[in-house]
């Protein structure tokens, strides 16, 4: 990672020589707050990035790289990025006026950057350049709790998984509290992320204030801690209140204003509070315990709410199916055996395919768009007919569905485009191939990737997608051969570019 570091007490405009220097601190792995075994994974040491690095990683802060649910209209936008050291990152870009003092911003970032815990998505860097203020964190590829809870497409979250989410986030908050970071700004279901194993983790971004004064809650006022409405300050007790709103989300599967939920609880209407999609598949005793904990967290008087240690103690005995991995309970694909990484240096696409990271492949195909169709995207005849317009409109609808991860709709639209037979496009075949992979249709994915190769015989992406499909079909030797072939084509292309 070509990042440069400086002490937070000496932040200033760096010379070119200073920007090329790198200094970072190693972070001692911290035990779980509950005393259980575990570490923070392979998060790198915290350091300072240059603005040029983060621009390159996020394709110039492209709107296509935005991953925050509020989109580019939010004051602070989160982008997905790719570093040269083959690591995906999440980059939070603050508004110009949020942190006028770079020294203060750097001190805040360096403090949070020391935290390392397996229930926390680690902060791995920051950037101060002119008016720009950015944070860099580990990227969590499996979306947010809000997405899985409120916008689920295949299945709702299993009851045991909901209990696990509440427990893991409580552990993260207890760890942060023990490490001297008891304040978490705007805790909500969008701050709960799922990592590559589908384990829930707390976003580190909420540990850094949204602005110098910290006076910004993006959630609806109905969900905001009452004391924050009075004085505009976040306290440790405010964090507990916000945790209570997450418990309500987990119980009900929807946003319920805390005052309304408390009225339901006082009226003994707990059954009406529960998510109907669970269809009664939960322990009434455990549900009652979770409702009681939510009620305590949402008390109007801050002093009447439990602390983080009490959260963990209450949630620990409620954990069930402890031997079932999170990806199984969340209904996500099991991490599969990937083809052996080739000897040649490979591109982001190659790395994503070697890791069987379908989410990363999707992001790369979205960013690449139709750039690789040059020279192969030909019309079978030149008249601009209504049929041609209909066909291009089908592709446009397919592209929209592809970006929105509606893969079944994308397959239907791309099939309409391809079946017309009026235009050949290896990119459409590649995109449909990935859609088939996302829908566990490996045979169809392999056919589409092979068709893309037929159209564009030296296109590495076609070979990479074949490698993924073959691996999913348990043809691992063939998958490794295909991965090596793709890497060789990339190397050949790179050598040719240097020679010219």
Automatic annotation (TrEMBL):
Q: Where is the composition biased (Low complexity)?
A: 17-27
Per its record, what are the GO molecular function terms? ATP binding; protein serine/threonine kinase activity
Q: Alphabetically, which GO biological process terms does the record hold?
A: brassinosteroid mediated signaling pathway
Keyword match ATP-binding:
yes
EC assignment: the record states 2.7.11.1
List each copy of the Protein kinase domain by range. 64-330
What is the reaction catalyzed? L-seryl-[protein] + ATP = O-phospho-L-seryl-[protein] + ADP + H(+); L-threonyl-[protein] + ATP = O-phospho-L-threonyl-[protein] + ADP + H(+)
What's in the keyword line of the UniProt record? ATP-binding, Cell membrane, Kinase, Lipoprotein, Membrane, Myristate, Nucleotide-binding, Serine/threonine-protein kinase, Transferase
Membrane topology category:
Lipid-anchor
Q: What is this protein called?
A: non-specific serine/threonine protein kinase
Instruction: State the organism named in the record.
Output: Vanilla planifolia
């Amino acid at each position: 990672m070509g990042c440069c570091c400086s002490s937070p007490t000496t932040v200033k405009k760096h010379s070119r020589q200073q920007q090329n220097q790198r200094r970072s601190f190693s972070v001692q792995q911290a035990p779980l707050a509950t005393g259980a075994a575990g570490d923070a994974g392979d998060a790198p040491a915290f350091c300072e990035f240059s603005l040029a690095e983060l621009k390159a990683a996020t394709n110039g802060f492209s709107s296509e790289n935005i991953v925050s649910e509020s989109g580019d209209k939010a004051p602070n936008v989160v982008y997905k990025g790719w570093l040269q050291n083959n690591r995906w990152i999440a980059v939070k870009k603050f508004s110009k006026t949020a942190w006028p003092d770079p020294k203060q911003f750097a001190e805040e970032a360096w403090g949070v950057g020391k935290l390392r815990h397996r229930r926390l998505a680690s902060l791995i860097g920051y950037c101060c350049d002119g008016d720009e203020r950015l944070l860099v964190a580990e990227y969590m590829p499996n979306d947010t709790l809000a997405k899985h809870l409120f916008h689920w497409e295949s299945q709702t979250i299993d009851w045991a998984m909901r209990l696990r989410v509440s427990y893991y986030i409580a552990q993260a908050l207890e760890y942060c509290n023990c490490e001297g970071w008891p304040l978490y700004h705007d805790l909500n279901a969008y701050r709960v992320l799922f990592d590559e194993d589908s384990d829930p983790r707390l976003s580190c971004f909420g540990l850094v204030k949204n602005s110098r004064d910290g006076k910004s809650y993006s959630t609806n006022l109905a969900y905001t801690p009452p004391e924050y409405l009075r004085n505009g300050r976040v306290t440790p007790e405010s964090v507990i209140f916000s945790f209570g709103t997450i418990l309500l989300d987990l119980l009900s599967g929807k946003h319920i204003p805390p005052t309304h939920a408390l009225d339901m609880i006082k009226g003994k209407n707990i059954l009406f509070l529960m998510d109907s999609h669970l269809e009664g598949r939960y322990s009434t005793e455990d549900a009652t315990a979770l409702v009681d904990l939510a009620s305590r967290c949402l008390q109007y008087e801050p002093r009447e709410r439990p602390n983080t240690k009490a959260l963990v103690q209450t949630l620990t005995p409620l954990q069930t199916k402890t031997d079932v991995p999170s990806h199984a309970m969340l209904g996500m694909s099991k991490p599969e055996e990937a083809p052996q990484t080739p000897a040649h240096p490979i591109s982001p696409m190659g790395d994503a395919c070697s890791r069987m990271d379908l989410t990363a492949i999707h992001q790369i195909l979205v960013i690449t768009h139709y750039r690789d169709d040059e020279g192969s995207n030909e019309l079978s005849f030149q008249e601009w007919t209504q049929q041609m317009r209909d066909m291009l409109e089908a592709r446009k609808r397919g592209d929209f569905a592809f970006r929105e991860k509606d893969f079944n709709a994308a397959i239907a639209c791309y099939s309409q485009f391809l079946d017309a037979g009026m235009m050949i496009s290896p990119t459409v075949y590649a995109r449909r191939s990935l859609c088939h992979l996302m829908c566990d249709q490996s045979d169809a994915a392999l056919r589409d990737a092979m068709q893309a190769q037929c159209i564009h015989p030296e296109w590495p992406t076609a070979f990479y997608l074949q490698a993924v499909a073959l691996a999913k079909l348990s043809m691992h030797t063939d998958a490794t051969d295909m991965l090596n072939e793709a890497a060789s084509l990339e190397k050949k292309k790179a050598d040719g570019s240097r020679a010219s």
